[in-house]
Design a protein that fits this description.
Blueprint lengths: L4 H44 L13 E7 L4 E7 L3 H6 L2 E2 L11 E5 L17 E6 L2 E14 L13 E8 L9 E13 L7
Parallel strand pairs: 2-3, 4-7
Antiparallel strand pairs: 1-2, 1-5, 3-4, 5-6, 6-8, 7-8
Amino acid sequence: MKRPRGTAILVIAFVTGFVLFGKSGYYYAKGILAQYLLNTAWEKSLFLGKSVKAWDWSNTHPVGKLIIPSIGLEQIILEGADNESLAFGPSHITGTSTPGEHGNICIAGHRDSYFRELGNVAEGDIIEMETQSGRWIYRVSWVQVVDGDDSQLLEETPGDCVTLITCYPFNFIGPAPKRFVVRGIFMSHVLGSSGVG
């Protein structure tokens, strides 16, 4: 006896929905676990005074914590802006000054996840960076949209600064053609890491 066509369609829809939601739930849970492990690794790094990986097989490690109070951003910064690092958080672009050093510290992040709210940053906002050498405070001096191949952003600057970069437009589907850039100018450095949230 043949099953009614409607039942088969219902079963297919149910299985498809289960797979899609199950996969989404898996990635969501994986993201939450990763953030917990990254924060734990960063706290251990501060305590031990050396880099600690969040998981043994990782090719990256935390190098700081980025905090922008005006948009509620608080994320661990990973080393090396490759696909693995960027999948788990904002990442330091190798070849630019490292968080906790003088120079132009460049950090990239995905526009649809960790840097989703970056478009709400305004001139004058404060950017904090917790590093093993203490807390570095920057004030946003400008926000710009530039061409995707503009490498001048990564060059050394006369003074100390942090450059945050993400793809633009924020709601673009696929590889975005532009970059949204926030530049913060160094204001102060506080030794030690206590009191940074």
